[in-house]
Write a structure and sequence with these properties.
α7 (238-245) packs across α8 (260-272). This protein is 34% helix and 16% strand. The protein is built from 13 helices and 17 strands. α10 (345-356) links the parallel β15 (328-332) and β16. The chain is globular and about 65 Å long.
């Protein structure tokens, strides 16, 4: 990564405005999983140790575009962080009106801003309303972009240095992740961001081979990964688009019918590149999307009225054997509907194979992280990513706006 990090700047007496990913599950004011908060601690503590002060900002959930909503307030997170740091964290109840709180800060102080998504300018996204003309929509969009710049400028005014440590939102060109860098002198990566890019970047661009990738979430990643891997394993709902493209009956299983030709092209590309391309050879099919449904193990074709919700035992064995010989494994997406116990065997079986492989193992965010945590095998993985969508876009070969915007070394 050719971007500046916190180590490359003098932080003494400086105020750092830092984008973190504190989008954590909260129920009735109680934080249910603090993984993302813990992930940001090394960067936070480093700034404080170096004599700087910190203004932290994050989004939380998906509030409607109507301003403040108590359910999405970051106040409980500020209180939780205060306990973790063993020092006060001042909460600013409005991210765009925190001048007085910020001006009063001294070295060593920490301020947490309220949810940036209480302002629709943060995302800068607009949907065309029914009956709205294209001209009117374009004008509204341009107006929102100007407001986004104003919000970014305001957030930038809170610090001398900008730090992005929120890999989970690095694929978004939001006010607090990318636009802000235009209005502040130096923009650096935090340690979590640096770690994510180092692991994913090395895995994809400079892997120790054999390199095995397992995907189940997004068809678009296949095209890029085929040029990098030795073996590509397809699981989850994605597999049935490929199986249908090969002429199999898939019953009521998930399928992207508009992507069947793409699927055929990818199978041909794998053959051309001499990449081992693995699809399920048997499946656990159900007659309803329910843990209590009738279940049968089927090979090849799935009967009419039935849907595949997990890979079968022969496929688990096939995939586990492919993983066994790997030196690098990237896994993004479960093998089936693992949240339901009757359809968790595929995901858990593959998870065990990854844990036992002895390879450098990178779990690429989202549901695969939930699956690994559920399996109790998280400690056996080399790196567990904090970014679902960001990991996928990185694997797809896309530039991440939140990374591109940072200052070059």
């Amino acid at each position: 990564m050719n971007k500046k990090t916190l180590r490359d700047v003098d932080l003494k007496g400086k105020r750092v405005v830092m984008r973190v990913d504190f989008n954590v599950p909260i129920k009735e004011g109680v934080i249910k999983d603090d993984t993302r908060i813990k992930g940001a601690l090394p960067s936070i503590q480093y700034v404080l140790e170096q004599g700087g002060s910190l203004v932290l900002m994050s989004h939380l959930g998906r509030p409607a575009e109507k301003g403040y909503e108590a359910d999405f307030s970051l106040k409980p997170v500020a209180e939780y962080l205060s306990k973790m740091l063993g020092k006060p964290v001042t909460f600013a109840p409005d991210c765009a009106n925190a001048d007085d709180i910020v001006k009063a800060m001294k070295p060593g102080d920490v301020v947490m801003l309220e949810n940036t998504r209480f302002y629709k300018e943060e995302q800068g996204k607009l949907k065309q309303k029914e009956g709205q003309s294209d001209e009117e929509f374009k004008a509204k969009k341009a107006e929102l972009k100007e407001k986004q710049k104003e919000l970014a400028k305001k957030l930038a005014s809170y610090g001398d240095i900008y730090c992005n440590d929120a890999f989970g939102t690095a694929h978004r060109a939001h006010a607090s992740t990318a636009v802000i860098t235009k209005y502040i002198g130096t923009s650096v990566a935090g340690f979590l961001m640096e770690k994510e890019i180092a692991f994913l970047g090395n895995a994809v661009n400079n892997p120790v081979r054999p390199f095995v990738a397992m995907v189940s979430d997004k068809l678009a990643v296949v095209n890029n990964l085929l040029t990098k891997v030795n073996t590509l394993i397809i699981g989850g709902g994605m597999a049935y688009t490929f199986l249908k493209a090969q002429g199999h009956n898939i019953g009521k299983s998930l399928c992207e019918d508009d992507q069947l030709q793409y699927a055929r092209d990818m199978i041909a590309k794998a053959k051309e590149l001499n990449v081992q391309f693995l699809l399920p050879v048997d499946n656990i099919a159900a007659d309803a999307f329910s843990n209590d449904a009738n279940i049968q193990t089927v090979t090849d074709d799935i009967p009419e009225g039935w849907m595949a919700l997990d890979i079968g035992p022969k496929t688990i064995e096939l995939y586990a054997n492919a993983i066994k010989g790997a030196k690098t494994v990237v896994w993004n997406g479960p093998m089936g509907c693992f949240e339901m116990s009757n359809f968790a065997n595929g995901t858990m079986g593959v998870c065990q194979a990854v844990a036992d492989s002895g390879a450098t193992t990178i779990i690429g965010g989202g549901d695969s992280v939930a699956a690994v945590n559920k399996s109790g095998l998280a400690s056996k993985m080399t790196h567990i990513s904090t970014g679902g969508g960001a990991s996928l876009e990185f694997l797809e070969g896309k530039d991440l706006p939140g990374v591109v915007a940072l200052s070059d070394k």
